[in-house]
Write a structure and sequence with these properties.
The complex is a heterotrimer of chains A (165), B (124) and C (496).
Chain A: H1 2-23, H2 27-47, H3 51-76, H4 90-109, H5 128-136, H6 140-161
Helix pairs in contact in A: 1-2, 2-3
Chain B: H1 3-29, H2 36-39, H3 58-89, H4 93-116
Helix pairs in contact in B: 3-4
Chain C: H1 10-36, H2 44-65, E1 71-72, E2 77-78, H3 80-107, H4 112-130, H5 134-152, H6 159-190, H7 195-207, H8 211-228, H9 237-244, H10 247-272, H11 277-300, H12 305-322, H13 331-359, H14 375-378, H15 380-394, H16 400-414, H17 418-444, H18 465-483, H19 485-495
Antiparallel strand pairs in C: 1-2
Classes of the chains: A mainly alpha (165), B mainly alpha (124), C mainly alpha (496).
Chain lengths: 165, 124, 496
């Protein structure tokens, strides 16, 4: 019961703040609303027992990635004169209609919950230790290749964003 | 719910309570009078100069993105560090060390590259 | 659970991964050169890259020839298929490097990072084509694409190049979201992301309660792959990106990226399409028809040869998709036909783009078709090779393009998709218009100096030996396998 209340309140915060992200005119307000959204999502992860993921959500998304977002907004510039109210266009109405349709279809598909109930494995499930063991045994090869991906990210950032290479 | 999750949620609740509490208390106790001084942005006691909305240099962006990459690296090393002793106890410490060393080594190459290319120099 | 490292066979993993290590080492040298060497010799990195590719190629070829059975490490599967496609990828990477040397030199923008990123991208493709797990598919696609996004925007001073990189990146990120969502749904309904497990269990899952979520997940994966192979309706990015990117990178995207994505798609299809086939048959055949039609019709109106080839590349993706419904009933035949086609497609597309590189060696990139006017007189050999590639793309015997289409359509007919093949043949006929037009312009149109026709800037100086090498290799390949298609067929049969 307590968990359900917690879940629905956090989920409501997440959905409302996500809506605010896309409706604010000032991009900085949108970015701050996104932080709220990330926090609420982290709370949902915590309820599900994924404490490590919850911390990562805050550390990486609410922390590092939001800093980057705000830098990018500052880079582009947020002169109030440049900020225009959003206009209703045909494309947007069509897009919204498609989103509603998708939501209805998904809702209908989920009507009868077809998932095999995920086993709640308690504290060991998704704890850093379990993840660590899996990371260097089952997922060893993806783990190593991931570092190549990160290397490309470093080189790519320098190649594209540095003033002079 | 696991004890880890509960402790995180308690932390969240406390953080939210402190943040909301400060706003509420100052709203209740404050007089509500506004003056020019009070409405100025606070910059360590100095009067602000110019518009805060001037564009940032792309240099900030480069530093931020490099920070994120190394942040992700740390995130992946954390679970490894938690279980390293277990591997050592099982007699596989050398292997466990090697796989992390390879991961780190590949990213070290990125650091050397960024450094050599001058991406870490502020002045060009 | 005790930690278990011993379940991995380290020595055979090292053996299999050796070509990858060679490629990575070369990329590392390229980055270190960029970082630490002040005045680098402009030829050092590309030559080192070519040597590394050659070494990796030789090692992998040895692996392909050896009679040892394939090895699976769960996440990665090293079988004949993955080794063969990896060889094709290395080949296209080498062609791209050869074209890059004069291209970058002409623009005074020679940077070692370029070659390093190219090599790391091939590494991502290697993961993609050897992936035995959806997680690895995702990681491979990301590694491959991230490097190509940067390469597409490598000429930073050109607005078109920046636009190409941004568009490619945004669309690619969007596609990745679909892929990831699909993987999550498949995992949720099947309990595994391993392709072998999925193949075993998909009939059972499709009959059980998780059916709708499994279908939804696989549909999401289809959308993700649709973006990567530029199938209609997920194709809109391709012409702009192909047009704006540096031409050697366009070659790389049109050949290696496409081949890797198609083979991963093929592997996925073989694993999951056998169950619930009728759904996928409809989706894939509609996609194939739409892709062929749109690619061919849009290619007709293009004035710029780079855009024309981009739309032609979309059309060819449509032809390849014609074989995909056959996966359900005849996975082996479909796989072989797709591999044959990809091989032929790499040869002829790389060759055609090499001619575009020759035309565009100036500062601005004059790639209008009218620039070809009179090429038949001024440069008879170049005009003849371009004619050969265009005829092969069109599918005129005895070029390799004809036999590629022939085997593709034959597979579809054998599995009973005659209507699909009829549409594909009609499309081939439509494509004659735009493939023959450059040939007509080259040989029969007199250049008018007033509108700057003819005389692409690059034509004033002699052809770079690197471009000559590319043209010679691809033209020989197109002609040789056109006359002896059974040799290529034997290679392909041995790989799938």
């Amino acid at each position: 019961m307590f968990e359900a209340i917690l879940f629905y309140s956090l989920a409501a915060v997440a959905v409302i703040s996500a809506l605010l992200v896309v409706t604010r005119v000032n991009p900085i307000s949108s970015a701050l609303m996104l932080v709220v959204c990330f926090m609420a999502t982290a709370g949902v992860f915590a309820i599900l027992g994924a404490a490590f993921i919850a911390i990562l959500q805050i550390l990486l998304y609410a922390g590092a990635i939001m800093v980057l977002f705000i830098f990018v907004i500052m880079l582009i510039g947020t002169d109030p004169a440049d900020l225009k109210r959003r206009q209703m266009t045909f494309a947007k109405i069509l897009g919204a209609a498609a989103a509603v349709y998708l939501a209805i279809v998904l809702g209908l598909a989920a009507w009868r919950p077809p998932f095999i109930a995920a086993p709640m494995a308690g504290d060991a499930f998704l704890s850093p230790a379990t993840i660590g063991k899996q990371l260097v045994t089952t997922y060893l090869l993806p783990f190593e290749i991931l570092s190549v991906l990160l290397l490309i990210a470093i080189v790519g950032a320098v190649v594209l964003a540095k003033k002079k290479i | 719910m696991s004890i880890n999750a509960i402790s995180i949620l308690v932390l969240f609740a406390l953080a939210a309570a402190v943040a909301l509490g400060i706003v509420l208390i100052s709203a209740l106790l404050g007089s509500g009078r506004k003056s020019t001084e009070k409405l100025l942005p606070y910059e360590c006691g100095l009067d602000p100069i110019g518009s805060p909305r001037r564009r940032f240099s792309v240099k900030f962006f480069l530093v931020a993105i490099l920070f994120i990459v190394f942040d992700v690296e740390v995130v992946f090393l954390y679970p490894w560090a938690v279980v390293f002793r277990e591997f050592k106890a099982a007699g596989e410490g050398a292997l466990a060390f090697t796989v992390a060393a390879v991961f780190l080594g590949i990213l070290l190459l990125g650091l050397v590259y960024a450094w050599g290319r001058g991406a870490l120099d502020w002045e060009e | 659970m005790m930690p278990q490292f011993t379940q991995i066979d380290w020595s055979s993993l090292f053996n299999m991964g050796l070509p990858w290590i060679v490629i990575f080492a070369a990329a590392a040298i390229a980055f270190l050169t960029a970082a630490l060497v002040e005045e680098e010799n402009s030829l050092f990195t590309p030559v080192m890259t070519l040597v590394a590719i050659a070494v990796a190629f030789a090692l992998s070829w040895g692996r392909w020839l050896s009679p040892l059975p394939g090895l699976s490490f769960g996440m990665l599967v090293f079988d004949k298929l993955s080794v063969f496609v990896w060889l094709m990828i290395l080949f296209s990477a080498a062609i791209s490097v050869l074209l890059s040397i004069p291209y970058l030199a002409a623009r005074g923008f020679v940077k070692p990072e370029y070659y390093g990123l190219l090599l790391l991208s091939t590494l991502g493709m290697a993961c993609l084509v050897s992936a035995g797990d959806l997680l690895m598919v995702y990681l491979g696609i990301e590694t491959m694409s991230l490097a190509v996004y940067v390469l597409a925007g490598f000429l930073r001073y050109r607005a078109a190049s920046n636009e190409a990189a941004l568009k490619y990146f945004l669309i690619g990120a969007f596609a990745s979201a679909f892929l990831l969502m699909g993987i999550a749904f498949v995992f949720g309904s099947a309990g595994s992301t391993n392709l072998a497990v999925l193949a075993e269990r998909s009939t059972e899952i499709m009959a059980g309660e998780g059916r709708s979520f499994y279908l939804f997940g696989v549909a999401m994966l289809l959308i993700g792959f649709g973006f990567k192979i530029a199938a209609v309706p997920f194709h809109a990015w391709a012409p702009d990106v192909y047009d704006g990117a540096p031409t050697p990178v366009t070659v790389f995207m049109a050949t290696a990226v496409k081949a890797a994505a198609f083979v991963a798609f093929l592997r996925l299809g073989v694993s999951v399409f056998s169950a619930g086939g009728e759904v996928w048959i409809t989706v894939l055949s509609v996609g194939a028809v739409a892709t062929m039609l749109l690619g061919n019709l849009a290619a007709i109106v293009q004035e710029n040869i780079k855009r024309m080839l981009a739309y032609s590349s979309i059309a060819h993706a449509g032809y390849i998709l014609v074989a995909f419904p056959s996966i359900v009933s005849d996975p082996q035949g479909a796989g072989r036909a797709v591999l044959f086609y990809l091989f032929a497609y790499i040869l002829m597309t790389a060759g055609a783009f090499a001619v575009v590189v020759v035309m565009g060696l100036g500062k601005d990139e004059p790639t209008g078709i009218s620039r070809l006017a009179g090429l038949g007189k001024r440069r008879p050999v170049l005009a003849a090779t371009l004619t050969l590639f265009l005829l092969s793309l069109l599918g005129i015997p005895p070029t390799v393009g004809f036999f590629a289409k022939y085997y593709l359509f034959l597979t579809a007919v054998k599995s009973g998709y005659i209507w699909l093949v009829v549409i594909a043949v009609i499309n081939s006929a439509i494509s004659a218009y735009y493939y023959l037009r450059p040939i007509v312009v080259m040989y029969f149109k007199i250049p008018s100096p007033l509108v700057g026709e003819g005389q692409g800037e690059g034509e004033t100086h002699a052809l770079s030996p690197f471009i000559v090498a590319v043209l010679a290799i691809t033209a020989l390949g197109v002609a040789y396998f056109g006359i002896f298609p059974s040799n290529l067929l034997a290679i392909v049969t041995g790989s799938f």
